[in-house]
## 1
Amino acid sequence: MIVLLNACSEDSEYSGDITEDDEETPFIGRGLEEGHWGALGEFYLIDETTDADSFDIGDMSLSIEKVQLVQGRFNKDENELMDEEREFISLIMDLNIPDNKGEDYHETIDFDIDFMSVTTDTREHIETSEMYSSKIMPLTMQISDALVSVSYEIEESDIKDINAIEFEVESPVDIHGEPLGEDVEVEIEI
């Protein structure tokens, strides 16, 4: 009989249960990420913060529900993982558009994930990874309360060295290209 005990303080970056089967699999970060990233391959949640910030951008509001640092490999096929390990910063946000804007509101503005970027505290500036992010399409804009996922691939920094990001969002623009508000920069500690 093997008994493994695992004790961690609340400040530790490692938590979770370790079993006999885990001897071949290294325990990384907080353990396997079983949500969105878990469906794409074998990804580990390195760190996470929730309810990071809320702010208005033009007539809309964005509420950052979750910021995750994830590391892992994508599925190659059903039974095999790709060789290359990848690292991402992932933001899950609630996009809220006031109900009083009308059905055609989405046709009068331009706003998408391309308006967003991050800069890490290691000074790496990263543009949105469109392949692994939601699109803010006219249909999304018609929903007054939509969940949006935006991801940024880390290429120059060591994921373990990232403790904060600056999330930058450019103001939406109208059909004439005029900004509908101020650009926003939000510092988020992870």
## 2
Amino acid sequence: MTYQDRNNVVSIIVGLITTAYVIFRLVEMNAAGRFDGADAVNVWAQMVIWIIPIAIGGTIIGTILFNIGYAIVTRTEKPSFLVDERDKLFDRRGIVAVVLFSGGGFILAIIALTFGWSALRAFNIIYFSMALGSMSADLVKFISYRRGY
């Protein structure tokens, strides 16, 4: 497993955990009536503003720990950080996935607003489309590395 593979696996796992946590919190907060008032978008934003840095920190810590654990188990001393044209191609494939999902989610949110959906639902569409875009980018890169092209 290459260094990039390990990073992609950690990012996918952290993304799934973060998304599951967000869904759990949204259901919990909705059941408690936290989104019933006029400040529903503010309550949602306060939740999301804390999740973003926690997910970033979790990805960084997870990547470090996973790479250390992998090095101990496989007895490899030093990972290769060499980046070639193939790595850049795989990164571009991932960027395309992010742009497609994020852009599609934004357009879907705008369409939802035109049909009278609440701003809270539109923000949820945008958030989950970006989360799906991020996870799909990592999955595309992981599959590309596994295939080798």
## 3
Amino acid sequence: MARPPAPEPTTALAPGEVVIEHRYPEAHAFLSEHGPDALAVLHVLAVRAEVIDGRLVARASTRGVAEQLGFLSKDSAHRRLRQLRRAGVLDALPSTGPMDPPSYVLHLDATGISVTRADPSR
């Protein structure tokens, strides 16, 4: 039986679209070491991230991450954020105000994960 043709790769992203790619074996090693919950938390941050001064920066509260995922409590989301910080995948930036969510710099180089955002000028 013949296989259907593979879909054509999309070269242009629509405004607001984000592509998160996993390169193996690096991404598999990251998943094996940190687990699926940490990976899901990292995805939430990656989708929210913007490039600021050449760094990938995401603003997200623990509660907001838990609510977006829907399957982690805020305590579990906090533990995964702390785990990613200890692993060097996230750096917390100084708070900009008492009511502002924390900001994190994402360091994805050793994770096998990359993020591509749509060009906002389109």
